[in-house]
Design brief:
This protein has 399 residues and is an alpha/beta fold. The protein has 2 domains: 205 residues, Rossmann fold (3-Layer(aba) Sandwich), CATH 3.40.50; 159 residues, 3-Layer(aba) Sandwich (Rossmann fold). The strands form 2 sheets. Strands 3-4-2-5-6-1-7 form a 7-stranded parallel beta sheet, with helices on both faces. A 7-stranded parallel beta sheet has the order 10-11-9-12-13-8-14, with helices on both faces. The longest helix has 14 residues. The radius of gyration is 22 Å and the shape is globular.
Length: 399
């Protein structure tokens, strides 16, 4: 379906055309008309389906021409990176309007706080915020919500996983009871449905089935003991300059730092992203990676969802993700826009069962590549036990 068939304003259609967007994605086609009708909505759709535009476009349509004072719409996102990206998209789509937005997030300096305070005081139209920093501003009492219309929670599942449930409820307590509510989530666990039942009124439910990884992603895996991971990782990357953009996903920030230190002994242009960096430095790392000044980035799952970086050649899962759907999000960073890409996963004994769940989700057996001879043999593929304890021969350090 074309955007012009969804009932959007002419100026939005002009902005979409200018940006090269003509056809609506399934999530946009299924949600935009209902949002324009001011219905509450709960939508399940993964990263890369166009869900951000699915709520930005109709909200801009509804707010255009509204000259009332105060904040009129608010998007809550789990991370600063995602909040910034959503704000940038709002500014792009709203280019031909007088609507204004601001991203409110932590990790900045006093100047950032003053800028956010000034915008909230003056009644910016749309606020995109992370929960903690927004509450700090709300506690000061200078945000005007008397003409508030719409609350959007983006990646609601991730926010609850990160422990933001009480923060979300506190934010909602500041808002007028009569408003539109939109929940967007990659997954729909019971805790999301519980929160939705408390907040939403007669919501429309939309679910876009999780996509299988693109066929042009070459998926492979290695069965390894933990002490073999770093040597294998170095071998996979050393002398492979054809991979101009590489993301390595690790489960914890401590592991991110360890991988960076090890790789820098043999490789140049390696940077890490974790909560150990302040916000400005994290943004600089992402920008250097996006502009290809940095070749390899080691990250926690902050880069697996909601960060738009194109032309990634190789994704390596240093650790098997706990959630099978997170695997799809991670490797979906590569092979975008009909390009090809490679996704490699390192699987230790403890993670074989988890990786088997991934293979069942994507309906594909991922090829197990033999280790290079000089690294020795790895563990054998074995699903006979549901839990794998520490090997007496090879100590297993959980990541």
């Amino acid at each position: 379906m074309k955007f012009e068939d969804l009932g959007l304003n002419d100026w939005l259609l002009e902005a979409l055309s200018y940006m090269g967007f003509n056809e609506a994605t399934p999530i946009q086609e299924k949600t935009i008309p209902s949002i324009l009708d001011r219905r509450d909505l709960i939508a399940c759709a993964q990263t890369g389906t166009g869900k951000t535009a699915a709520f930005i476009l109709p909200i801009l349509h509804l707010l255009e021409g509204n000259t009332k004072s105060g904040v009129k719409a608010m998007v809550i996102a789990p991370t600063r990176e995602l909040a910034l990206q959503i704000d940038q998209q709002i500014q792009g789509f709203a280019y031909f309007t007088n609507l204004r937005s601001i991203a409110v997030y932590g990790g900045g300096d006093g100047a950032d706080w003053d800028q956010q305070k000034k915008a909230l005081n003056m009644g910016v139209d749309i606020v995109v915020a992370t929960p903690g920093k927004l509450i700090s501003h709300l506690n000061m009492g200078y945000t005007d919500f008397k003409n508030f219309e719409c609350l959007i929670l983006d990646e609601a599942d991730r926010m609850l996983d990160m422990g933001f449930a009480e923060d979300l409820k506190k934010i909602i307590s500041y808002l007028p009871k009569k408003r539109q509510n939109l929940f967007f989530s990659a997954t729909m666990p019971p805790k999301i449905r519980k929160l939705a039942k408390e907040v939403l009124e007669d919501p429309l439910e939309v679910s876009i089935a999780i996509s299988k990884p693109a066929e042009n992603i070459l998926q492979a895996s290695y069965l390894v003991y933990d002490e073999q991971k770093i040597p294998l990782l170095t071998e996979l990357l050393k002398g492979k300059e054809k991979y101009e953009s590489v993301i390595i996903f690790a489960s914890r920030k401590k592991k991110v730092n360890e991988i960076c230190r090890a790789l820098r002994k043999d490789l140049d242009s390696v940077e890490g992203i974790s909560s150990d960096l302040d916000q400005k430095e994290r943004e600089k790392v992402v920008e250097r990676f996006r502009s290809k000044r940095t070749r390899i980035v080691v990250s926690t799952d902050v880069l697996s969802r909601g960060i738009d970086i194109k032309d990634i050649n190789l994704v390596i899962n240093f650790d098997v993700p706990n959630d099978a759907e997170d695997y799809v999000h991670r490797i979906g960073r590569t092979a975008r826009a009909n390009t090809s890409g490679v996704a490699i996963t390192l699987i230790n004994k403890d993670d074989m069962s988890s990786f088997n769940k991934i293979e069942r989700l994507i309906e594909k057996d991922v090829f197990k590549v033999p280790l290079p001879e000089h690294l020795g043999e790895g563990p054998k593929w074995d699903l006979s036990r549901r839990h794998y304890g520490k090997s007496k021969r090879h100590k297993s350090h959980r990541n």
